[in-house]
Design a protein that fits this description.
ph1033 like fold, alpha+beta, 6-stranded mixed β-sheet
């Protein structure tokens, strides 16, 4: 199966590219949107990930990660003490999933959303047309273009 590419958003105050660089890998918990969840369930080990800081000035892609463990039940959905608890999620038939991602590289500077919007070759990116989705597919050409922009800094 061909490698797939994704963009995953996080708020840098919650979990940043520097946190991932330090930790080497992490689980991506707390996704509570069905479309984003379905995207994570489609991820395969080795897939490329654009690591995106939202709620930042400016928001944008700050580095690259990779999927190191495929989707498995998000156990925080079953933990009543967790902010990600979901009373309707059943351990026998989980509603929510997470994946593990590993650090690949941090860019010298952010590839900002405004910059991405200015590149004609990126005009069809999900990010440009549905910027609220936290886990989204990226075409290989889009992934390669954003990585090239990031490495040029």
């Amino acid at each position: 199966m061909a490698m797939q590419y994704w963009l995953m958003k996080t708020e840098p105050g919650v979990y940043s590219i520097d946190d991932l660089k330090r930790d080497k890998k992490t689980f991506w918990e707390g996704v509570r949107n069905y479309q984003a969840r379905n995207n994570m369930r489609a991820m395969k080990k080795g897939d490329g990930v654009l690591f995106y800081h939202s709620q930042a000035t400016p928001p944008g892609v700050v580095g690259v990660a990779k999927v190191v463990k495929e989707a498995y039940p998000d156990h925080f959905a079953f933990d009543k003490k967790s902010k990600y608890f979901d009373a309707k999620s059943d351990p026998e038939e989980p509603r929510w999933f997470m994946v593990d991602v590993g650090f690949v590289e941090k860019f010298g500077a952010v590839v900002s959303l405004p910059e991405i919007r200015e590149v004609n070759a990126l005009k069809d990116m999900v990010l440009v047309n549905n910027s609220r989705l936290s886990v989204q597919p990226v075409r290989k050409a889009e992934f390669d273009r954003v990585v090239k922009m990031g490495r040029a800094r």
